[in-house]
Amino acid sequence: MKALTLASVLAVTAFAAPVFAQDLADLACAEFAAMDNAGQMAVLADLKVLQSEMASSQEMTPEALQAAVVENCTVDSEMMIEDAFRKAFE
What we know:
Elements: H1 2-21, H2 29-34, H3 37-53, H4 62-75, H5 81-87
């Protein structure tokens, strides 16, 4: 029973690993746009660390931030996701 549970956890983790394994600095908007909602929100949660490094004190809800990043990515699908994230706070 424990082996089956462990195998299930490992299988689920294997599907989630590519999102987190990829360096966010190398993630393009086109790749971000191809993710489902959960994948996009996971990337944005990881990018929230950048917000503390920026001078902007602007706060956004996760949904508003996602919409702003998606809008920036729509303008330029070759833009890197970090740049689209930073632009959301300009």
